[in-house]
């Protein structure tokens, strides 16, 4: 039996050397691409915090009637809130459904939905929200009567917008933006006074 005829010929040294060079070149190219993507992700495409701003809070409607015998107040308040979210990133920012709330004495007394949306790179989304105070939620609060009699009704608004920034289709950064505003309703002048807002964003 001829053993030489059953032995497979080994690849020539030059061919093996070429294959090795090609493999090393592919690996080097992949490493360079990964390095470039990391550098871009840390510099040009670095995740930045979206900026949420309350541009204005206006009194849309105010209806007040006093029940002196029962020391109760029948109260209806509607606020128009103009809110903007700016995306300073080089990529789009998507946020999920959320809710803006109206508070009195730390208690939620009104809500307005914030529908999910996407903000393109460098763009700003503006939203007009209507927050209506639900009078039935104030029935158990004994401070309403004294506040209305004093002529000033303290309220606060709160919004939380949660979304993601996707960098180079690989890196996902979760972002949560909070906005809270304290304000006073001047019952006699039917206007908004002493508005102060605080902003916070977490990456």
UniProtKB/TrEMBL annotation:
Keywords: Membrane, Transmembrane, Transmembrane helix. The chain crosses the membrane at residues 21-45. Pfam families: LEA_2. Signal peptide: none annotated. InterPro entries: Lea14-like_2, LEA_2. Residues 83-174 form the Late embryogenesis abundant protein LEA-2 subgroup domain. It comes from the Eukaryota. This is Late embryogenesis abundant protein LEA-2 subgroup domain-containing protein.
